[in-house]
Amino acid sequence: MAFWDSFYKKKKDGDPSFKKQLKGLLGYSPGNVTLYKTALTHRSIKETSDENNERLEYLGDAILSALVAEYLFKRYPYKGEGYLTEMRSKMVNRAQLNDIAIRMGLKKVTLFNKSDASLKTSQIFGNTLEALVGAIYLDLGYKKTSRWILHRIIQPHMFMDELEARDINQKNKLYGWANKHGKTLEFETIGEKLENGRRLFTVAAVLNGKVIAEGKAYNKKDASQIAAQNAVEKLGIENADSAGHGY
């Protein structure tokens, strides 16, 4: 860890190249650089809560959810609560945010233990994006954060027409397929742990007593939807409407 301690110290002491990267990522010169460095620091580098991004992730998650809710409320004035909730879930789910974070270049500037191979393919970059939103909110306030999210996240990375057409209720699709083929489908919570101060649930899709896919999220409903989506993809239900798959 000596290299990473030195690397982090260099950033903390004021690395011009880091500031340039940060400005390129944000689109503006940040006021409180230390705040953003904290947002980009994973706990695999700094374990104490005032030096890693877990607290900012908690804040950013709430801010992002609220701002996306406001955006949807204004965009769809005649849609009901259920539709708006479903659209928000499509926009801010863990996998979606992780993909957006990587496309934005967050993987290149996030400080994490690169010797841990599991982190390179994990969803910590979506979590880092939430932490970054928390930092922006503390630095710029609600209105400017709202504009930043619109111009840097929603407009370039969230294609609303595609999201509207996407069937998020994968559980219903999977239940329908199971009923059609005479199979028994259940969703079971197989894991629960604290992560970033919140409960992370692991839910399994169980077909005829066999676990075929898993999903993780901060609530059981989202975890079961992710498990269902993974199962749908594994079974090829998107492309095959009739054939059995041996489960």
TrEMBL record:
Signal peptide: none annotated. The keyword rRNA processing applies. The active site is at D61, E130. Its cofactor is Mg(2+). Its EC number is 3.1.26.3. The keyword Lyase does not apply. One of its GO terms (molecular function) is rRNA binding. SUPFAM superfamilies: dsRNA-binding domain-like (SSF54768), RNase III domain-like (SSF69065). GO terms for biological process: mRNA processing; regulation of gene expression; rRNA processing; tRNA processing. It comes from the Bacteria. Residues 169-237 form the DRBM domain. Residues 19-141 form the RNase III domain. Belongs to the ribonuclease III family. Digests double-stranded RNA. Involved in the processing of primary rRNA transcript to yield the immediate precursors to the large and small rRNAs (23S and 16S). Processes some mRNAs, and tRNAs when they are encoded in the rRNA operon. Processes pre-crRNA and tracrRNA of type II CRISPR loci if present in the organism. This is Ribonuclease 3. It comes from Flaviaesturariibacter flavus. The lineage of its organism: Bacteria, Pseudomonadati, Bacteroidota, Chitinophagia, Chitinophagales.
